[in-house]
Structures are given as C-alpha cells and as structure tokens.
Specification:
The protein is α+β, with helices and mostly antiparallel strands. About 45% of the residues lie in helices and about 10% in strands. It has two domains: about 100 residues, Winged helix-like DNA-binding domain superfamily/Winged helix DNA-binding domain (Arc Repressor Mutant, subunit A, Orthogonal Bundle); about 80 residues, Arc Repressor Mutant, subunit A (Orthogonal Bundle). Helix 2 packs across helix 4 and helix 6 packs across helix 8.
C-alpha cells in the first residue's frame, strides 16, 4: 500500500485536499485507523501506521487490537481481521451467501484435489521447481501449477541452480488471504499434521 494519502482518501477522512498527512495525527487515532482500513482494498501493515502517524509499533498494535475486539464483539456484516501481513475489513462469513446472491457475485470454484495437493507441496517446499513437484506427487503437475497461477495463489519466485535453470514457484499474498494466514510461519508444522483431508474428488 502506498504510504502517501491520496486526495480522495483525505476527503474520506474529513480533511481538505490542502491538508497534509501530518494533520492526520491530530485526529482520534482509532477513528483514523478505522477510516484508512475501510478505504484500503488490501491488508494494511502495522508499518504503514507507524510511519504515517509517527508512533511506535506497540501503540499501533494496541489501537488495531482494540478495533479487532470492537468488530468481533459487534459481530455485524463486516469483520476486521489480521491477514497476509496486515489488517483488512472482510465480509462476515455468516453473510457471505446472502451478499453473493443479492449482489450477483459468483462463488469461486473450489480447488480440486490435485490443485490442493500441489498447493500444499509448494507452500511447504517453496521455492520448488515443477520436476520436484511431479516427483512428490507421482504425476505431472503442469496443469495444476498453471491453474494455481491463474488463481493468483502461486507465482514464479526465481530460478534454481539446476540444469536448465528451471523456474521455482512459491505462494502469493492471495494464498495467505485465502487460508486466513498472516504469514507463512502460521502454517501448521508438518509434524503436527497427521493426514491431509481433501473434500473435493476431482483428480489431476
């Protein structure tokens, strides 16, 4: 997220276009944080608030935690969540089906078993090349990798020093958002996972 506050954003915060980001410090921080989170279409990291409000990370986290608690207690149509390295407003899951129906949103197709298997391997073994994924799955994964890239769940992250210098793949911020993770270290440890259970029956 850009650290500069746009003209539209200043107006949404009740400021005139002539005012600068420094004036934001004079407003109630809880309200200002809430307004910025409302305007953002992606997770806003703590570092954004620290830099633009010239406060320390502890104070910023206290304000954000209070907003998290406020929206959790309210349990309304929107929730504030900590996800993908930042904080973001999302639709309350209990309203999801109604919102999709009323606004005509199409529900995303679920990931197939093959896609889930491939994504699981990439998430734990990244950076990993296609040949390594194929070896672990015992079947060609080229189509699975292509479909996951179309869903913006994985991306090329460089090349490995192997013959032909093949592309290596890793997960994206969209992957973190989809699974409600703040960072990759939030993934359960492999030793803690007794088995993977996939609801979908579609094979690779």
């Amino acid at each position: 997220m850009d650290n500069e506050i746009s003209e539209n954003e200043t107006e949404a915060l009740g400021l005139s276009p002539e005012e600068t980001p420094e004036e934001v410090k004079d407003v109630d921080l809880n309200s200002a944080f809430e307004a910025i989170l409302f305007l953002s279409n992606e997770p806003v990291p703590i570092s954004f608030f620290v830099k633009n409000f010239e406060i320390d990370a502890t104070e910023a986290k206290i304000i954000l935690d209070s907003l998290l608690d406020e929206y959790a207690e309210r349990d309304g149509g929107i929730k504030l969540v900590e996800i993908s390295g930042g904080f973001q407003f999302v639709t309350n899951p209990k309203c999801g089906s109604v919102v999709r129906k009323v606004l005509g949103f199409k529900k995303k197709e679920p990931l197939s078993k093959g896609m889930l298997e491939t994504l699981s391997i990439i998430s734990y073994k990244q950076p990993i090349v296609l040949a390594e994924i194929d070896e672990l799955r015992g079947v060609s994964s080229r189509m699975m990798v292509s479909n996951l890239m179309k869903r913006n769940l994985i991306k090329p992250v460089g090349r490995k020093e192997l013959p032909g210098r093949p592309l290596a793949y890793g997960t994206t911020d969209e992957f973190l958002r989809l699974f409600g993770l703040t960072q990759l270290s939030d993934l359960p440890k492999l030793v803690e996972i007794k088995e993977f259970s996939f609801d979908e029956t579609e094979e690779a």
